[in-house]
Write a structure and sequence with these properties.
The structure is a single chain. Helix 3 packs across helix 7 and helix 5 runs antiparallel to helix 7. By secondary structure, this protein is α/β, with parallel strands linked by helices. It has a domain of 109 residues. It has seven helices and seven strands, in the order αβαββαβαββαααβ. The strands form two sheets. It has a five-stranded mixed sheet. It has a two-stranded parallel ribbon with strand order 1-7.
């Protein structure tokens, strides 16, 4: 299987077939192995201030907050396709560096190579899961736990020994 993006048709079925020989004793596949076949969609992160408009797709901690017990950070996180970045950022303030702690008037934007609104719920779960690095999970194990909770029904798991 060639390296693909998370919007690949029938991705979950293809991954589970390709990685069937790499399953753990529990029958699940380590999510880090998926990154050898699927490119993480997060190309860049920006903090912006300004009116966001409608139709943004929640990703990152905001996505996990809506589906697990993980509490979101003060800055909500959404994805914008790279093809729409210039239009999206027009009239907004791009912040240099991290925002002031607790500033909820700032939004974290992840730039993705495709439109996340085209993904099914399962594809979006997988895309969000692989957008985190083990370093991020190590810094915040609650995020790793939330990702693990969502990906296990899909046939994957976070290997806690790698954190």
């Amino acid at each position: 299987m060639n390296r693909v993006m998370a919007n690949e048709p029938d991705l979950l079925k293809k991954l589970l077939s390709e990685l069937q020989h790499r399953r753990s004793k529990s029958g699940l596949v380590d999510i880090e192995l998926v990154k050898g076949y699927v490119s993480p969609p997060r190309l860049a992160d920006y903090y912006v201030r300004g009116h966001l408009g409608a139709g943004l797709v929640a990703v990152g901690d905001t996505f996990l907050d809506a589906r697990t017990m993980l509490a979101d950070r003060a800055q909500k996180t959404f994805a914008v396709p790279i093809q729409q970045w210039s239009e999206f950022v027009d009239g907004k303030e791009l912040l240099d560096g991290d925002p002031v702690f607790g500033d909820s008037n700032v939004t974290r934007i992840e730039v993705w190579p495709f439109d996340p609104s085209t993904l099914s719920e399962q594809q979006l779960i997988l895309a969000v899961a692989i957008s985190y690095s083990p370093r991020e999970w190590y810094a915040n194990e609650r995020v790793a736990g939330a990702v693990d909770q969502l990906i296990q029904p899909l046939g994957f798991f976070v290997d806690w020994n790698n954190l």
